[in-house]
Amino acid sequence: MRMSTEEKPAAAPRSLAEALRGRDDTELAALLRSRPDLVTPVPTDLTQLATRAGTRASVVRALDRLDRFTLQTAQALAVAADPAPYGELLGLMAGDGGDPAVAAALPGAVRTLRGQALVWGGDDRLRLVRTARELLSPSPQHPSPTGLGPTVREATAGMSPGRIQEIVTAVGLPSTHDAVSAVTALTGLFTDRERMAALLAEVPFESLEVLERLVWGPPYGQVTAEPAARLRRLLDRGLLLPTAPGTVVLPREVALHLRGGRAHRTVEPVPPQVGAAATHPPRTVDATAAGQAYTALATVEELLKDWDEGGPAVLRSGGLSVRDLKRTAAALDVPEQVAAFWVELAYVAGLLASDGEADERYAATPAYDAWRERPAAERWTVLAAAWLTATRTPGLVGGRDAKDHTLSALGPGLDRSAAPEVRRRVLTLLAELPEGSAPDAGSVVERLRWERPLRAADGSAGSGATGPGGSAGPGVGDDLRSRLARWTLTEAEMLGVTGRGALSAHGRALLGTPAPAPVPAPAPKARAGRADRAPDPSGPGDRLPVHHRAAAPHPPVLAALTPAERAAASAAAARLLAPQLPEPLDHVLLQADLTAVAPGPLRRPLADTLGVLADVESKGGATVYRFTPGSVRRALDAGRAAADLHAFLAAHSRTPVPQPLTYLIDDVARRHGHLRVGAASAYVRCDDDAMLNEILADRRAAELGLRRLAPTVLAAQADPAGLLEGLRRMGFAPAAESAEGDVLITRADARRTPPRTAPEPVPEGPPVPDDTLLAAAVRAVRAGDLASTAPRRAQAGEADGTGAGSGEPPRTGVAETLATMQAAVLTGETLWIGYVNAEGAASQRVIAPVRVEGGFVTAYDHTADAVRTYPLHRITGVAELADDED
């Protein structure tokens, strides 16, 4: 193709597709990144991309992600003329008196709307895409948030021409020959500030009071069949117009005059600032957060240790029963809502799952054993990273779903796709505060509501749930994002991401956010709306004049970290947290009252063995273990001999082993295993027949159904486990044995689920494409657009083929196709072909043939930017491209 030697001035785009065609690859990639639904599947050309960008579902999703000021800008365009010049939009946003903050922020909002293909056209012809206008324009069924009603032209559409002429005459305008010109004259009067002010000056005060009640919406009112005089004056002058029997409306032009030209009562060009409720030294924050992080690790370990031998049963509908949640809360000594948080956290981290058996129960997974062997800081990052990206929402536990069913922990219905974004956004807002600053929760919620006003207005199901802190927190009417924000602040504190409400150093590293550099207070002009603005995403021909440019609002949607970035952030967080955590100890302090005091966290082997040999009596800065006959028997059941226990205590105690503890171990060991219980259905074997006689004589043994089979053997009707437990309740220390007569060793950690993967987060719409996919998508769209719009020469039987492609691929016979290909090889011309691949998908391509032989054509494919070979029988037709005119 021959290119023009002079660059022609770009014409104003006539459609959204033409506006997109004028953008460069970077701007198209930015559009696809901000609206990922447009890239799935990849559009064939820019016309299809524009069509998809105007569909209702896509537009609703795009509007849903606008901040309050940008959404207000779109709403103002919906009530403006179509198309509207930039000056009219500025007047609707800033009013007749002007507003410097609005004037500074409005260009950025327009660029955001252009960048997301919701607005197109130059400054003199701003157009809101049709679907967005339909969604945002006021109507009786769907009132506009602006509170404006229909225009004079819309309100008088069904009115008789005679009645329109009466209104025109009443306001002092000359009568016209038709209703259209009369409506035009009336509209001109209502939009003329001076003449409108003179008209309203003639209206009595009591009539103006009626207009004041309707001016900010809703614009509709009810009247009787015989309106009062104050209403009749307004109806006669067209200041109120009837829309239905008994219903009147305030015309949009009249309302705008009374509002001083403003489309909104309150315009918020600048996001509300997140205020600091308190400030603490950063070291105090980090130390407090580290203490909470250690407590989180201990709590999760305690929870899963309690479920080591098989946790609670899974409900038929899925999840944990209310009774089991209460038991878990009591075992952890926390409120039920907090227990639900820890259970859900272990679940999303892949440490807890159901075993999948017929009698399905919850238990630790094999990943839990690997997790326990990792350093404490790394174990914490596993929990924190899982929490940060999880869509499971523990705060909803105890609430109701759409079917009025109770939402249970570990059950279905707890996924909220907005949760990861809200958590990351809340923590990012905390990261923007000075180090050590704890935010005011109300200001965080207000900021999120500004960033997503449509979400805030929608609300969500399950509003009766309380937060992890145990209190209801926000009211029932709060939207989901607000409740997620409050839960995030509470959960981050419990998990140790924050300390005393402020973001810790390791929490900041987990986000991949550097510490804020101290900067001077912003100048008043910057606070008026020029801060936190994004680069210009508008395309060529769509740009604002330089004097209109201002920075765009900080985008509330944060790009998700790649796996490599998440791993690096977790490693950095672990490095910062590790020095803050207490060093594990290898010793305890034994005391004469059969207790052992652990003055800090214990090393893994010591903690595991001591957890079997003794019971935890109290926790805190130091953990107190108590030795009992039952705990010592538990250690003997696990395969430890009395000598092993004496050696273990002597090696790990900083104090001498008390004599009462030595006696306790020896006494339990002497009696342990004297009785042997096996499966016959069940039997008791003992070399001391006197002991068997004692058991038979004990009335407590009646429920076991014992009878003597031999001098040293008793048979029982109970199963071996029940028999063991019954004899232990009677004060004996029996041991289980195998069929070969060997003592069975039982370990507390024997119950594990099969390998399970952590639950995948439920995405909120299509995922954001990465740079590689974006580059490929833009390339494919460009290629398809080149093929569909490339000008071609007229073919036989065509009057004109030089225009932009009609979109239909060329159709030629086999002989003509072959001859054209061979000629193009000799001349080096570029051809436009239609091609059908092996799957039957048709496409259009622009190629430069290099070689034709053996039924194949080898050519440079401009649409793919690569040399490719195509079977001739799959080419549906060929056409020569027209030369460009100079």
UniProtKB/TrEMBL annotation:
Keywords annotated in UniProt: ATP-binding, Helicase, Hydrolase, Nucleotide-binding
Region (Disordered): 136-156, 456-479, 511-549, 787-812
Alphabetized InterPro entries for the sequence: WYL_dom, XPB/Ssl2_N
GO molecular function, one term: helicase activity
Helicase XPB/Ssl2 N-terminal domain sequence ranges: 588-710
Ranges of residues in domain WYL: 816-878
Protein name: Helicase conserved C-terminal domain-containing protein
Organism: Streptomyces prasinopilosus
